[in-house]
């Protein structure tokens, strides 16, 4: 080898090892800005390396000291899918608090836990999915139709409420803007016109959206998060908008987001959304992966959740995209990683101790927000609060279901308080009667004995996963499953951290101790291949099982132990994996037995509703009235309706506690039941919170963030994205319970409001002062709501929320509640320019404790140029 070649080789080795040996390139200099560092590092990457960084599971590039990083993490209402975490109420419940200041505190706690977990996970040196610093939350889509299964993830039907809650979430997650490093990065999703149906979201085209609906309803929250909260990521949606897939929409991503709103952050695709561009049966707007990937990047989608972007080098060769366009996206991605300190050491946020996870302070916060989320819908004859000396019957499918309370996209709490548990803690056994009553949807229920299974000293199953279909070699992970299985890869969700979406296998093992001599049924719903073995012998197998099929019946003998093993294999490329499993007794509903059991009570508390196992993201059909995670009807399931009707014949007062992530049609129940509480999916402290409200230890103060329609017939076509006839803003019929509705154990009286001036113009402010008096017998909190109405606009909303404030007022006291209203408060849709702006004219400010116009007071104001 001659000297020149030796010198070149030596230089190459130096460049390769420089980061390891400590030589500092500009991108390693922490005194430079993230922008400068990203520019320097970008120039050192090959095309293939750049493309590898544009996929959510980005591999390491050792020669430059770049670590592997997975962009996908979740924190919808607590750190999700990463072990123990504080589980706050599902977001629709948090929206019912109308307390954005408290939401900021909640997500500050969430970001503390997230950073502490990241620091702990980093010690292994091999971070996995759900262990990074980029969180794909909040979901700020408008909950336009209660049948949408993912509406539970949103902050309701109103653009202003959604905006305020979303801004609070982002600020809590991303941390103060004066720090050297961002605490986390949040993500506004799903941009933009997206709210179901779930079953056809990969092919659905949201078309004929009027400019008014687009700018007045669907876009305001996204604009607020971009321009007010400086959200660092935006996720584009699955569906098409006016013919173009949202992740390839030049209008949404370039014209509006980048050009008009001046957004500088990352756009990430929803998981698998780029595949929808070309896959047969989906959008089919592009012929192949190369053109789909190029089209998405050219439209501004920087990061793919999926694997289509691997084809970008080939797309460059074909002339479908220039490498300089790829550089734009890669620079944004690198800048974000530098902003987080992901490539640096000694980041300020590393000092957050792991002890914050599941800490007492966070548990207390979970209880506080759970209490504030509960909405008292009706309270006939002031049956609530309950008296301490009553004999109470608790009945219903949601009375003792902890998993239901977690919602979806959830973490796993160290303990969950159910309503049954909370009542047992405060009522003597002699005065508490409990009965399961009925299943949520079926005449036959499975009475689970899952809690009789344990292994390694823990309740539940040891779960071992391999990233191959032969269960060979070193496991990808070994974890523990303590609740009945509900696994799916729909939405590109993995069964466990570090496990493949496809081509994986699993083995679940436990020991069952039979409490009685009886038949124990093994119920499965599965997309994949499974084998069930007991005591080392295969007793049943199946493939693609539906409707919670009873695969095997064990003739169990009291006190005997049984070694249970479930093997699962999934390799399909054209569908999602699923494994639902529970075991127990099949119990036919016996309404008369339940009625006989509770008839000695003074009052009946029925804990019913639905659950996240029925409504959610792109789910299989699981029960009558549900399709793909959505509902086909909003009525309370028939079996529950029957039981409530039979209970009423006892002549006892009935308190209905409804658990759901969406509005339920409760018109018959509103006539039968004396009181109705809306509890949502209230998180780990939900049982305690509901009990506190029932007994008056907490005076309910939540308000509905969605309209509760009387019945399904009041709804327009689910697939019609026009706002006509929808939500309190455009509905012409009377609903059962209005947006903003929520009762208290006390009464609040509103006096005449005053304005600091009767006109407002661009750049000016007015002060609205509203006197509110507590005329009841309890101290309480009221959510004062301010709506705007334009008297001259016959096509627009009847009125629309523009301000709210939660205030505490002691009994007998009065408070003057003031709002500073700026010119943005008075923006209205201008039909001449198709924009939201201050439109000259006469307006009314409506105010009170609900959105019901007949219960609101008014004050006039003029908008001038």
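^ Assign residues to that structure.
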């Amino acid at each position: 080898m001659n000297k020149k070649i030796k010198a070149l080789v030596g230089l190459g080795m130096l460049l390769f090892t420089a980061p390891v040996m400590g030589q500092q390139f500009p991108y390693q200099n922490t005194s430079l800005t993230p922008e400068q560092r990203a520019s320097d590092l970008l120039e050192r990457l090959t095309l293939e390396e750049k493309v590898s960084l544009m996929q959510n599971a980005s591999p390491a590039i050792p020669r430059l000291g770049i670590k592997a990083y997975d962009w996908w993490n979740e924190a919808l209402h607590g750190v999700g899918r990463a072990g123990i975490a504080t589980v706050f109420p599902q977001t629709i419940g948090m929206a019912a608090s109308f307390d954005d200041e408290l939401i900021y505190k909640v997500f500050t706690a969430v970001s503390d836990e997230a950073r502490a977990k990241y620091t702990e996970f980093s010690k292994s040196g091999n971070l996995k999915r759900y262990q990074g610093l980029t969180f794909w939350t909040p979901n700020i889509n408008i909950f336009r139709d209660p049948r949408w299964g993912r509406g539970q993830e949103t902050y309701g039907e109103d653009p202003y409420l959604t905006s305020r809650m979303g801004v609070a979430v982002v600020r809590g997650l991303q941390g103060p803007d004066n720090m050297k490093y961002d605490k986390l990065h949040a993500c506004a999703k799903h941009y933009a016109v997206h709210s179901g149906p779930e079953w056809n979201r990969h092919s659905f085209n949201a078309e004929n959206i009027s400019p008014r609906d687009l700018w007045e309803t669907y876009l305001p929250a996204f604009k607020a998060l971009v321009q007010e909260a400086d959200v660092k990521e935006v996720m584009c949606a699955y569906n098409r908008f006016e013919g173009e897939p949202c992740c390839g929409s030049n209008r949404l991503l370039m014209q509006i987001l980048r050009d008009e709103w001046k957004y500088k952050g990352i756009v990430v695709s929803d998981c698998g959304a780029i595949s929808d561009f070309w896959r047969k049966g989906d959008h089919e707007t592009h012929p192949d992966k190369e053109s789909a990937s190029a089209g998405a990047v050219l439209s501004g989608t920087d990061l793919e959740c999926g694997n289509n972007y691997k084809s970008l080098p080939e797309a460059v060769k074909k002339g479908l995209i220039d490498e300089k366009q790829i550089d734009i996206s890669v620079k944004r991605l690198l800048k974000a990683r530098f902003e987080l300190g992901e490539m640096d050491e000694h980041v300020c946020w590393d000092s957050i101790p792991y002890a914050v996870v599941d800490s007492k302070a966070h548990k207390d916060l979970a209880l506080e927000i759970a209490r504030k989320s509960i909405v008292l819908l009706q309270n006939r004859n002031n049956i609530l609060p309950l008296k301490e000396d009553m004999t109470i019957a608790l009945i219903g499918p949601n009375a003792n279901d902890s998993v239901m309370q977690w919602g979806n996209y959830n973490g796993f709490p160290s303990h969950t308080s159910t309503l049954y548990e909370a009542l047992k803690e405060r009522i003597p056994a002699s005065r508490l009667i409990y009965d399961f009553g009925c299943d949520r949807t079926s005449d036959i229920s499975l009475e689970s004995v899952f809690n009789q299974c344990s292994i390694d000293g823990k309740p539940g199953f040891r779960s071992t996963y391999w990233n191959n279909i032969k269960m060979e070699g070193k496991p990808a992970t070994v974890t523990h499953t303590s609740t009945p299985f509900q696994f799916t890869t729909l939405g590109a969700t993995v069964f466990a951290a570090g496990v493949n979406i496809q081509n994986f296998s699993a083995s679940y093992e436990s020991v069952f101790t039979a409490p009685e001599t009886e038949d124990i049924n093994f119920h499965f719903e599965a997309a994949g291949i499974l084998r069930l073995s007991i005591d080392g012998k295969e007793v049943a197998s199946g493939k693609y099982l539906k409707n919670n099929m009873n695969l095997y019946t064990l003739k169990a003998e009291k006190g005997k132990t049984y070694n249970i093993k479930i093997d699962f294999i999934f390799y399909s490329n054209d569908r999602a994996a699923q494994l639902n499993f529970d075991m127990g007794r099949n119990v036919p509903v016996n309404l008369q037995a339940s009625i006989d059991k509770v008839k000695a009570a003074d009052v009946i508390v029925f804990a019913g509703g639905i659950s996240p196992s029925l409504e959610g993201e792109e789910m299989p059909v699981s029960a009558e009235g549900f399709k793909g995670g959505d509902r086909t009807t909003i009525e309370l399931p028939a079996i529950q309706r029957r039981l409530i009707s039979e209970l009423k014949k006892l002549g006892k007062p009935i308190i209905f506690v409804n658990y759901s992530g969406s509005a339920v049609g409760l018109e018959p129940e509103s006539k039968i039941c004396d009181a109705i509480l809306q509890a949502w999916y209230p998180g780990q402290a939900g049982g305690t919170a509901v009990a506190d409200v029932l007994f008056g230890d907490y005076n309910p103060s939540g308000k509905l963030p969605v309209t509760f329609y009387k019945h399904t017939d009041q709804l327009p076509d689910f697939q019609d994205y026009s706002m006509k006839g929808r939500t309190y803003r455009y509905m012409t019929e009377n609903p059962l319970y209005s947006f903003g509705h929520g009762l208290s154990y006390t009464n609040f009286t509103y006096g005449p409001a005053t304005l600091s001036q009767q006109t407002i113009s661009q750049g000016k402010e007015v002060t609205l002062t509203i006197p509110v008096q507590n005329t009841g017998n309890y101290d309480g909190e009221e959510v004062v709501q301010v709506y705007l109405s334009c008297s001259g606009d016959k096509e627009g909303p009847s009125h629309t929320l523009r301000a709210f404030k939660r205030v505490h007022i002691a009994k007998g006291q009065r408070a003057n509640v003031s709002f500073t209203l700026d010119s943005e408060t008075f923006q209205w849709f201008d039909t001449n320019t198709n924009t939201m702006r201050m439109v000259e004219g006469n307006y009314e400010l409506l105010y009170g404790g609900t959105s019901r116009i007949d219960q609101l007071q008014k004050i006039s104001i003029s908008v001038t140029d």
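The radius of gyration is 28 Å.
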